[in-house]
Structure formats: C-alpha cells, structure tokens
Task: structure prediction
Amino acid sequence: MIKQSGWAAALAAAALVACGPASAREVVVFDPGASPGSIVVRTGERRLYFVNGDGTAIRYPVAVGKLGKQWTGLAHIEGKYVQPAWSPPAEVKRDNPRLPNVIAGGSPHNPMGAAALTLDRGEYAIHGTNRPNSIGTFASYGCIRMYNQDVVDLFSRVGVGTPVIVTR
Result:
C-alpha cells in the first residue's frame, strides 16, 4: 500500500529534478497495436515500452515478478505519487515479518524509490527502486521496478487512466 502526505506535493518538483536524466531508456521501433500513450510490459524481456504512436516506443529496462508472482492482462494507472511511503502488503509482510508496518517516503529502505504509478489491479505498481541491481531480473511480488531516473521520466509522460498491458 502506498501513502503520501500533503507535504509530498510541495517536494514533488524537487524530487523529480534531483533524479536527473533517464539514461537507461532508448527509443526503438515498436508497433504492438497498442494505442499511443499506453504502456506495454513484456515480462519475458524484462522491458517496459511507452508507445509513442509513430511506430516507436521508449523502452526501459525493468524488474518484474519472480516465479509465481507474475501476472498478465490489462490494468490502468490509478494514482501517481512522488516519494510515497510504503506499507508492505500482507503477503510481503508474511514472508518478511521483520519489515516495519510503514516505511517513510524518501527513506533509503523504501522499495518504492523516487515515484510510483499505482495500478487498478491488486496491490501492484510501476515504481522506482532502492535496489537498482535488481533491474533486468525477476525480483518482485508482481510490481514493475524501474531505475529511479526512468520512473521519473515515465511519470512525466503518463496520467491517471493510462492503460498498462502486461504480457509474457
């Protein structure tokens, strides 16, 4: 679960600027039949594509769900949060009972990183990470992890309601 206090909006601009440019992204030829402005995640590739609509997409490396934690289908962005606080879902807490009930936004121990785009499907999000070495792996409980600078870039390109298509 993600929580964001009222002061976070005031820090949003500073946090987004502090992350710097996204260096892991690249523009690639892409025509999946998805609408311009939509997001396509290919878990087998461990890549996320933001569809430009001109036959290209911005491709970002990501970490995806580990074995048994992956999902596929359609979701939509439900919320946008900068440096959100994080409460571990019940499954994560069960596997890691020493985790605190809430980790403050901006904490180096917060797995949500610089920003989060929550999805309307379960307790999943596309978010930054405090473990950049996990990018390119099968590491999460179903969330899509991005480098912090890349999630900040994606955050600036999408709005609430953006479709997210997850495939194998």
